[in-house]
Prior knowledge:
Elements (H helix, E strand, L loop, with lengths): L6 E4 L13 H7 L4 E4 L5 E5 L2 H7 L5 E2 L33 H9 L5 H25 L2 E3 H6 L1 H11 L6 H12 L6 H24 L5 H8 L4 H32 L9 H9 L8 E3 L3 E3 L2 E3 L4 E4 L1 H4 L34 H18 L4 E2 L21 E3 L1
Parallel strand pairs: 1-2, 3-9
Antiparallel strand pairs: 2-3, 4-6, 5-11, 6-9, 7-8, 10-11
Amino acid sequence: MTSTDPTVVDFPLRKPGVAFPPPHYTDYREKEGLVLSYLPNGNRVWLVTRHEDVRAVLTSPKISSNPEHEGFPNISQTMGVPKQDQIPGWFVGLDSPEHDRFRKALIPEFTVRRIRAMRPAIERTVEERIDAMLAAGNSADLVAEFALPVPSLVISTLLGVPPVDRDFFESRTRTLVAIRASTDQQRDTATKELLRYIHRLVAIKEKWPGDDLISRLLATGALDSQELSGVLLLLLIAGHETTANNIALGVVTLLTNPEWIGDDRAVEETLRFHSVADLVSLRVAVEDVEISGQLVRAGEGIVPLVAAANHDTDVFECPHKFDPSRTARHHVAFGYGVHQCLGQNLVRVEMEIAYRKLFERIPTLKLDVPVDELPFKHDGVLYGLHELPVSW
């Protein structure tokens, strides 16, 4: 067990002008044991940066993802995990066995077979967005016109949202996930409007079921209507912004590494390379536990840094190089263990189709500004781009 005093560092909130992942993650991995930090609210937390240690934290029964526990490290009021009395069904904030009930009900909806059946609908959505961009001229903000609408419309199809409601659904979703362009009040309003809409949609599906995720979940009887509404909002948020960020960042990376355009392996490497959900897997110790020789007491917060793990030189050779041909592919971009992202198969297919169709349809696509002038997200819990000006 580590006997020396731990290194204390500033909490790694992203900052303009600092590369991502930040270079000090390398320094953290080289420290003995863990490094100690303090959240903006003053609460102390342990930062976990090595790939092996991150996977150990995400699978330890002594460590919880439930924000009800004292010491849980919510980064701020609007960048944390809601409790069940706030949004019932937000199951990523539950531990086994409660978490398992939700996951068991949802697993059949995200199998490889189920997602394969969705490919034609995803391809149509991507084609329609490209058609709209081309019809509007020879330039676009690829975030607003492509990366954000595609996953929103795909989720609309998955949930059985009627086509007449999709503009409403997509606009409220965009407000909800826009950290810079929306205020706390606007996001709160969008959340309430989406929940009201989801409640109504669930009630409609109860009377008139169809071939969609909501109807199939209702048929199982595994979740009550309040839980189901919370699950749907979680799927909407988790599946929308992460996918949009990966699509946009992947396009930039492929435009600056054009030798990999058309290579489907770029999807997996983009997920590892950018690790957009770096600060998502928040945890708290519920028993004393040793991590990398460091004793973590019950009630102390833990922040596994996903981007640090995915750039661990003990696991990934030259991790700061974008190299889709690399053989080491066991990244933790989707988490690890029982909380590993349920929708990862869907995200991969959306990214693959988005890249392939975009570069096939617009082979002259180019960035309108240098990469270092792009407005990267330094103010949200997820990494990405606020805007992506391109032309062709």
